[in-house]
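assembly run, all chains below
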Amino acid sequence: MIWSHFLLAAGISTGTWVLAVFLPKRVLIRNILVLAGIASIAIFIAYLWFSLERPPLRTLGETRLWYAFFLPIIGFLTYWRWRYNWMLYYSLGLSLLFLFINYLHPENFSKTLMPALQSPWFVPHVVVYIFAYAFLAASSLVAVRGLYQEYKSDLQPKVMLMADNLVYLGFAFLTLGLLFGALWAKEAWGHYWTWDPKETWAFITWLGYLVYIHRRFHMPAKFKSSLWILALAFVILLICWFGVNYLPSAQFSVHTYSQQP
Amino acid sequence: MNKNTKALWQSPWGYSESFLLSFGFLFIGFALEYTSGTSSFGAIVFPYNLIFGGIYILQIVLVYFFIRNTATFKFLSGIPASIGAIVALSVLVVIMGVTSQVPMQEKGFVNNFGLNRITSSIPFLLINFYLLFILAMVVIRRLFPLKWSNWGFICSHLGLWITVFAAGIGSGDLQRLRMDLIENRIEGRAYDAKGNYFELPLAIKLNDFKIEEFRPKLAVVDNTTGTLYEASKPSLIMIEDGLRCKLHDWKIELEEFYVTSGRAGDRYYPIVDLGAAPAAKVKLVTPAKDTITGWISCGSFNRPHESLKIDDRFSLLMTVPEPKRFSSEVSIFTPDGRKQEQTLEVNKSFTVNGWKIYQLSYDEKMGIYSSKSIVEMVKDPWQVYVYIGVFMMMIGAVYMFWRGNKVKNEETINVVSD
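ok done. output:
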């Protein structure tokens, strides 16, 4: 049931967005198509939440779904603010990639939610993180574009300003996610910080973007080093998000999202 | 980057000096760790941590008074020094992130340098003190003279300083103990991770341990290996009343289901008894239209489980249900003669006499028949100071979200046209 609804929602999003890319002359129609695709994912998430009787934020596949939802929204807002079409298309492409990964790795849509996760902190902690990741992913796209322009000796300062904006927003969310997690951990387990591998990597990610912000603030006129820091910070973020599950340090993590047999 | 025309250690200091300093601290730390062997420092406890913290703050104030008009102060409160310290800390945390942090017996490279216990190693301690020192300089520079427009900056930076300082200094005073509660018994002792028992200024009587479970799930396993068969997803389907579903290539229909039952003769009957387990009668239709009907049960601590053989390769079985919610009804007695009735639940703790009591676990083998509840007792006198720091950082984060980019935009734009 859930699976066939997923296929329908993903199919609608794919269809509308592909149409949106090939109808760039009619901006209004294009925008409506983009929003329709986003709405299709939103409806599916709402349906999933309802039918699982719990917030669909537990497994990696479910977070990917949220990511596929927020990424085009942020892409669209960024396009709205800065008039960058490529940003919109990039984010749509990434979102489709996540939907495709979910198609390749269908999960057990399980209703069970362990008692430790039944907390009012659960939803804000994860949602804030997903927002942060989406902003920071967008900023890394900007970094890659900036590095490419740099390579072509055609670096637009507008690109740097956009990267800064996205990082500032993403970093604010990242900090809140980290702190919400710490407060929740104190309430649920008695200690705010236990250097669980996920926490360790989240902290490294936070430090990475901290370095970028300070470097930019100190040397606003030097782009190249900042862009490399930004690109590297995103690699760390990816390790934190996916890689942690495969690291030797992760065997005792509470954050590994593994399915119980 | 510009060519570095100035000699090293010649004023004004910049990134080179910053990295040399912070990585120098790292180097010294690892050298000390190596020479001092594995006998790492223990956390300091009250009142020594308070004295030590006071001296550290006094030291910061004194240093500020002596160097406030020098270029050294400008450097120490500047961004290059901060970045050097952050990067040095990152190196340690990355080591922590890739190696497993578990104690080891054998001597070796990892153990000699404390790489498997970074958080209690000397380099980690040194870098943290260095970072806190730099951060203090940064904050002081913004505090004097105080400008209203700096409030967001001060919230985030001072908040971080207070959080790290209070959590670090207070870690020695944090006590985490466990208490095993047995129904209808009064318990006044708790034990730590090493198994040492402590008398507490309170006693707890467990009146009732309650547990709710999710329904069990249907799954197919490989007869020879015993592993879950996952040819198609979902490979686990939760039992619901009147369930009809398709699991891989088999159609399954639920005919009867009892949450607690016992086997008598050729079938299960609903009963209420210690150890009574869930059981279901299922009808399974194979792709070749053969129908197999039978009972399955996940069993319990005193009853066997039963699966349904589909063919030589596969069997259908019922998984052990997962806990949905568990809680302890307790009476808490304190030395002043008071008795408080409370319900302890996961994510819902209760504080009494400075001890926070958490529902932690139960006898998982016994499942819903557990009469044992395990609670955790935490005493953390520094928590309120850590929280002050955390809330300041939150305000700082919200400010950052609201204000957005603070980088000097004109400089960014001008540079490319140069």
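Chain B has three domains: 15-173+384-417, 175-212+324-379, 215-321.

Chain B touches chain A through 68 residues (CB under 8 Å).

not gonna interpret more than that til we talk
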